[in-house]
Description:
The complex is a heterodimer of chains A (141) and B (626).
Chain A: E1 4-5, E2 8-9, E3 21-22, E4 30-32, E5 39-44, E6 55-57, E7 62-65, E8 72-73, E9 85-88, E10 93-103, E11 110-114, E12 120-125, E13 133-140
Chain B: H1 2-34, H2 40-49, H3 56-60, H4 66-74, H5 78-95, E1 121-127, E2 135-143, H6 146-153, H7 173-180, E3 182-189, E4 197-205, E5 208-215, E6 222-234, H8 247-259, H9 278-293, H10 298-303, H11 306-317, H12 319-325, H13 354-383, E7 389-397, E8 405-420, E9 458-472, E10 485-498, H14 505-510, E11 512-524, E12 529-531, E13 552-554, E14 559-571, E15 575-584, E16 594-599, E17 601-604, H15 606-609
Helix pairs in contact in B: 2-4, 4-13, 5-13, 8-13, 9-12
Amino acid sequence: MSGGSPANPGAGAAPAPCKIAADPSGQYDFQVRAADMPVKVKLCENHQGDPATTSKFNQKTKVLSLATSPPTVIPGQPTAITDTTFSLSLPVGAYLIEIVLTPLPNSVIAYVNEDCSGSNQLVHILTNVGQPSNYFTLRVV
Amino acid sequence: MMRLDLFSGRKLRLAFSFLLALVFVLSNRAEAAGTPNIPPACNFILKQLKTDPTFIKDLQNLSKSPTCFWELALQSQRQLLQNKLRALAATQKSASTIQTGAPTGSNGTTSAVSKPITPLSLATEYGGITTSTSNQTMTLQTTLDGIPSALATHGIKPYCVSAMVTIPGCIYWKDLEWLNRLGVGVTANTTSSSQNIKGSAAPPQGTAQQASLTSGGTSAPSLSSVFAKGIIWRGPYKLPEKEPSGEGVAAAQVTLASGLSDVPPLPDSNHPPTLMSLEVWQNYQKWKQTCVAAIFTSERLKAVSENEIKDLFFRYYARIVGVLFRGESGECSSTTPPPVVTGENLSAPFLPNDEQKKLISAFEGYIASASLFLAQVGQQILSAAAAPVLSVEYDYNTPVNQPTTSTVKLVGSKAFGPNICTRSKSKNGAGKQGNNLSETGKDPQSGNGAASQDTVAINRYTGTINVGGNFYNSAPSNVPSAGAFRDLQAGAEMDVAFCTSAVNVIGSFLGNTTVGLTYYYQDQVSPSILKVTPGVPLPGISITGLASSTSSVFATKGPINFAQLKFGLGTGKNVKFPIAVSWSNRTDLITHSLWSAQFGVSYDFSSLLNSSGTTNPSGGGKGASQ
């Protein structure tokens, strides 16, 4: 992935440092600072972070606000959704990121990672047991 | 006598062996009935958990592993899933948002070159490539997976959501894939000239003569050909450019996550979970911690045998059924192992109360949505045109007034080059991403059903080649120099696609276009033969000087070179209009060159029945104008 600095994003730039961390309160899966938005998410084929080849993001991937019960959809999120990447640009709050994949029949597990210099797994999706979707919760502080 | 003894001894040994085998089988069955296996989806999660501790979240949170819980507690109640599938199908039908027709591939044409994939389509044609006379024909063709695929994508039959998870009575991907490799079709001759009229004339009245005429044959369309295609090799399947919507799956999982309070905010007495009481939820939390997180650690799973994991599963994990449906405590003692959960205690109640009904419905909703969605994804993958295909085709031809023939062809096709027309437009309007779920997490337009994006992507180029031979079904014995082998034939077609649908409103209506160039060669080993009956004229053919005893007329044989330039309208649409102009050095009967123009129309029914194989719908009409 091309990370780069905000001043010089694009191909050839060094991967960005990871911004999403485990939520220290334990109430949510992850936490990220609002100042670090946007964060980019990528779909991987395996633990090693290779780009996905047997599945892709379905266009119906959603971001929902957990401030309401039941959760409500955040319009316009995620942004820049492609087959293997999307971005999140969210204000302070608590969110559920519901991810749906379009898998090939030979897909086994897809890994959704933060697109950063490290290996930051956010969620995995068990496509070979008939579950083409999964979610994670994210607190933006 | 000795032989008899030996024979009797052998029979006794055989009988004894059979009895032993029977006892062994029955004892195994009894054992299997007493100790069920871990449901495949749960077993898969446990296997992953051995090496990746993050999978504990899937085991703990039922909304993250709905298939595992469904297999454990709900799979036996097959009628619930059928009801849910039918409800989703009804929602889909009224929403009219599902779109499954594949847009890719070259234009729909029969021309001189066969395409390897058979769509569910109806085409009308007029003319002929190498024939000297023209006929109107109607062709109906389909792949064999059409009907079962339609049943699955419409929710009438469940689709097996994975190879390892069994839904009773479900349709498997592997079965659909094999059926998709086989295509059949029939061509009927609908032109009026295919029927005969006969009669007798009254005495002449001057230069005029009255005749009494009746139809000489059937008024129903006559069969022109029956054909079958089988794909013998297919390249790797690719992810579909045009994907069905996962809206229903997303909504169903959000309903589970929120309703089970697997995600914040924490419920309280004023805001209990929507799918269970607060008391049951509290027991569910205890189960998560004491029966799952404390027991199913990666270290422990790595250290114990498969049988011990099975014991842990039915002793600890399976307690969730009692927690949710029988008010049992979710507390697992760290010192005293709880009893193994067996028999009816592993199933949801057959007569659940209202609260339990909501919970069961939420899980069934996810499984049904995933079943529909994955069936539609599978259908799209099968109909994708990008993969190279090699198929064999057999045609049984019954041309008018000619001997029947058989054609065997090897057909290869490959789409290549850059993807064009890769725009994506949501049915709900561009730029409204992520805004299709209402407050309840359901799609206001399509409910739980699968909507779709109007996404179009086709390869720039498609190449197709044919090699085959044509045989007389019975060797014509009364024709000099004629044998059973009629001709050797080969053809090649190259199509170039243009993204005209994005140009303007008219372009959007007509779809994308293709320009194709075809070359076809036929080397006639045996001459073409016409069957004649004295006194009965051949439709469109007039031959003078025939002897009254003549029953067959044969033409001069020779090689046929045929070239065609074709303009295809409607690529990516259900209705296609190929227009072509062609030249050949001769036809089967006439030995001089001629120009002709062709026009046709075909309708691809894939979007109606979700059939697959919409790559190259046949439909090149051939209007001859010699």
